[in-house]
């Protein structure tokens, strides 16, 4: 069984890591705060003192942290993953980050004989616990084939989209569209109310009709109160929309103007609600 190291034991990463160890893979975990690893006391997981120590005991290291800076830190600091991972090892970047960050890390990693794949995920903690996450992978065919059995412990489907960075591109497009669809959903529910249709009843229609979307379900699930989503929008969605627009600018790709406008409208809703 592939030895796996896992860093990033948040609401999504923790159930991913638990699925790995419960599938029989030797698992090593590390976190900045000791309390983060305490829920794994009932598993066979080993707790490392540093990312380097984790990597030294791993064939594949999965990173499910939040930002580009987090990825760069745990990989390239003096006691980071690259300081411990042996040649032939693989770093799987599950965080949603800039494709260029993945390529820069890969350029450093190859000096040590280490491969990198980008593998951002979508679905949340519940999907991870059920083994039903979506993983969007970019990287060399042979390397992706090596890590696929690990990904399969918590994901279905695992989609290989092309070269390094393509997984991030797909995830960023997904999050741009999701952000835009929040405004589409909220405006539709408000319009329904003005027409005399109960919002909750309309949510049932969309849940079973061709006009439905994941965003429409999320808005309805929040009882049409977006305040609970404000922190997510202010951090994750705003970050991802910003990265997507930067990628477009760097590559010279024309942005989809209506989608971008709707995404900005969504982010403005959260800003205006503060």
Task: Please explain how this structure is put together.
The chain is of the alpha/beta class. Helices cover 53% and strands 14% of the residues. α2 links the parallel β2 (27-30) and β3 (46-47). The model has no long low-confidence stretch (mean pLDDT 96). The radius of gyration is 20 Å and the shape is globular. The termini are far apart. It contains 13 helices and nine strands. The strands form two sheets. The chain has a six-stranded parallel β-sheet, sandwiched between helices. A three-stranded mixed β-sheet has the order 7-8-9. 41% of the residues are buried. The longest helix has 29 residues, at 166-194. The protein has helices at 13-22, 34-37, 51-56, 68-76, 81-84, 99-109, 124-129, 141-151, 166-194, 199-208, 214-221, 230-251, 257-272; strands at residues 4-7, 27-30, 46-47, 60-63, 90-93, 115-118, 121-122, 133-138, 155-162.
Cα-atom radius of gyration = 20 Å
Give the CA-CA distance, first to last residue.
49 Å
The main sheet comes to: 6 strands, parallel
Q: What is the H/E string?
A: EHEHEHEHHEHEEHEHEHHHHH
| Residue runs with pLDDT of under 50 for 5 or more positions | none
Question: Whole-number average pLDDT?
Answer: 96
| Assembly level | single chain
What share of the residues lie within helices?
A: 40-55%
Strand residue percentage: 5-15%
How many strand segments? 9
Q: Largest beta sheet: what is the strand line-up?
A: 3-2-1-4-5-6
Q: Structural class, judged by helices and strands?
A: alpha/beta
Count, helices: 13
Shape: globular
């Amino acid at each position: 069984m592939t030895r796996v190291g896992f860093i990033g034991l948040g609401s999504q990463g923790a159930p991913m890591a638990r699925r790995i160890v419960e599938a029989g893979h030797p698992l090593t975990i590390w976190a900045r705060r000791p309390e983060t690893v305490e829920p794994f006391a009932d598993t066979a997981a080993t707790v490392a003192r540093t990312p380097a120590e984790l990597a030294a005991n791993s064939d594949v290291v999965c990173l499910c942290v939040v930002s580009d800076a987090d990825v760069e830190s745990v990989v390239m600091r003096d006691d980071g993953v690259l300081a411990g991972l042996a040649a032939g090892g693989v770093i799987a970047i599950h965080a949603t980050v800039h494709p260029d960050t993945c390529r820069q890390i890969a350029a450093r990693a190859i000096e040590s004989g280490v491969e990198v794949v980008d593998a951002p995920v979508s679905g949340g903690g519940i999907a991870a616990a059920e083994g039903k996450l979506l993983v969007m992978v970019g990287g060399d065919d042979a390397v992706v084939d090596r890590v696929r059995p690990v990904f399969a412990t918590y994901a279905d489907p695992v989609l290989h989209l092309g070269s390094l960075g393509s997984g991030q591109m797909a995830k960023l497009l997904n999050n741009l569209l999701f952000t835009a669809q929040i405004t589409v959903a909220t405006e539709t529910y408000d319009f329904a109310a003005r027409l005399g249709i109960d919002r909750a009843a309309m949510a049932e229609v969309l849940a079973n009709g061709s006009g439905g979307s994941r965003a429409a379900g999320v808005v309805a699930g929040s009882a049409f109160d977006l305040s609970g989503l404000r922190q997510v929008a202010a951090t994750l969605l705003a970050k991802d929309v910003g990265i997507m627009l930067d990628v477009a600018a760097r590559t010279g790709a024309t942005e989809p103007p209506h989608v971008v406008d709707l995404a900005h409208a969504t982010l403005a809703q959260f800003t205006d609600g503060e």
